[in-house]
Specification:
Largest sheet: 3 strands, antiparallel
Helix content: 25-40%
Number of domains: 1
Shape: globular
Strand content: 15-25%
Radius of gyration: 16 Å
Length: about 100
């Protein structure tokens, strides 16, 4: 791969990772803090506790509706993660209360 193509791919990857990190905040830090102040965990935190630790998991659907509704509904307010629970592959779906 030529240097220009490598640079372009790196730039696109970096942009995607920044967008992914932003979208994973759901409704934003203030809404996450509100959930925590109620003694609750966010959907992603609950799912992380449910899934087997140290095993790869993959969130899917994060980009659904990210550019709709003025950017206020990343993932269409649903968190969907493929992972393992007690060694079995599972799809876990939870509503994102921060949206």
């Amino acid at each position: 791969m030529k240097n220009a193509a490598k640079t372009r791919l790196r730039d696109l990857t970096d942009a995607y990772l920044r967008l992914e990190k932003k979208l994973q905040l759901g409704g934003g830090p203030e809404k996450i803090a509100r959930i925590h102040s109620q003694g609750k965990l966010t959907a992603r935190e609950r799912i992380a506790k449910l899934l087997d630790q140290g095993v790869h998991s993959q969130e899917i659907g994060l980009l659904v509706a990210f550019d709709e509704y003025g950017g206020q509904a990343p993932g269409a307010a649903v968190v969907t993660i493929v992972g393992k629970i007690q060694g079995r592959e599972c799809v876990v779906v939870a509503n994102d209360a921060t949206i």
